[in-house]
Amino acid sequence: MSIGRRVFEFLKMASQEHARWDYETSMSILKNRKKMLILLAMLVPILAVSFLEAGDMIGGKTAYAPAFYSTNIFLVSIAIGLCAGLITGCIGAGGGFIITPALMAAGVKGILAVGTDLFHIFAKAIMGTAVHKKLGNVSVKLAIAFLVGSAGGTFIGGALNKALYDYDPLMSEAFISLVYAVLLGFLGFYALADFLKSRKSADTGDAHGGSSAGLNELSQKVQKFSLAPVIRFDEDIVPGGRKISGVVVALGGVVVGVMAAIMGVGGGFITFPMFVYVFGVSSMTTVGTDILQIIFTAGLAAVSQYAIYGYVFYTLAMGMLLGSLIGIQVGALTTKVVKGIHIRGFYAISIIAGFINRAATLPKKMVELEMINLSKDLVQTIESVGNVIFWVVVAFFAAWVIGKFIMNINKLRGEDEAVAPVLVKEEA
């Protein structure tokens, strides 16, 4: 298997695991009446501020927020959350990757989009994660080593974003767009090739394979690296357990923390494949650790690196949370009435649309930074075309999913109750 293919499989698994966490967390909120009431109570003051359209909040170069709150920006945030939720619920991957690009495409500054997305993830994690149900398999030593690293990583990534913004806001925008363009471009085009290949084969895309906790060649080499302190784990799964250097685990945490703080994601999309395929940790142990790290990493990055500097737009965060809860529910139900091959195709297209949107902004940013020399009309046209492509693809996908849902609503009512009543109180 080529290196590129290995990286794609890693990122694909990462995207799927983040979607799985997002779905479970959202369902935990939706099925619990108390949590829904708390969410509504949190929305009341934010809605009041939005509809009153308050005056200037924060301005200047070192702390940025919109000059005013408006009803329109709140509705836009709900729409973005809805679309991301539809992608997550229906496709099972990818929704979290388009939130920051979508916010930037809607006109939100990159650093504010990153901070707001992190706060949205943190709020969802705190409200929806039933930690006590899944912590039985957590290795405390592994968790501590990883969280020490991810904490350092959030400070590195956050400091880098803030330093670029303080030096030149345009450079910050270009950097965030470049990171997303590279990631989404690589993942999107590999996914498209995978989809086109599957169409020619007997693979319908309806089956979803699970992950293996067995040791591969890479994880065997990593576990042989015995730099102190050495941590033992999975004693209840493997006789005598396995062991790994705490330094290696901490370095992995640094990578996750940096990516989370730069991209505005919780880090969970990298943690699962890193633990299973690089560290050789069992899936059961990984799940519990992943829950802890998302709460810790997203919370630390959102609060210490963005919120206290004014880089979080709370109206947007709550709007996205509300929209994503609805979207995930509708998307998950729709998977029962659409073919898997169609879902796989939309996954590739949605990721590529995000890539086109971010890549199309780069020429204009580079001209403004005086790195290249192109006409303003040309770069403006490129950016506008990228924006139109992105919103057309997202709108078409949303309309397709919602249309399928409405046309099959009677059929879906007869399905089992595992994903149906939205506000039924969660059983103890």
The total strand number stands at 2
Q: Termini separation (Å)?
A: 46 Å
As a whole number of angstroms, the C-alpha radius of gyration is 21 Å
Question: What would the average pLDDT be, to the nearest integer?
Answer: 76
Strand order of the largest sheet: 1-2
Shape: globular
- Number of helices in the DSSP assignment: 15
What is the ordering of alpha helices and beta strands?
HHHHHHHHEEHHHHHHH
Main beta-sheet strand count, sense and barrel state: 2 strands, antiparallel
What portion of residues is helical?
A: over 70%
Helix and strand layout, with pairings?
Elements: H1 3-30, H2 33-52, H3 71-91, H4 95-105, H5 110-128, H6 140-167, H7 169-200, H8 217-224, E1 230-233, E2 242-245, H9 246-263, H10 268-279, H11 283-306, H12 314-334, H13 340-368, H14 376-407, H15 409-413
Antiparallel strand pairs: 1-2
Helix pairs in contact: 1-5, 1-7, 1-10, 1-12, 2-12, 3-4, 3-12, 3-14, 4-5, 4-13, 5-11, 5-12, 6-7, 6-9, 6-11, 7-13, 8-10, 9-10, 9-11, 10-11, 12-14, 13-14
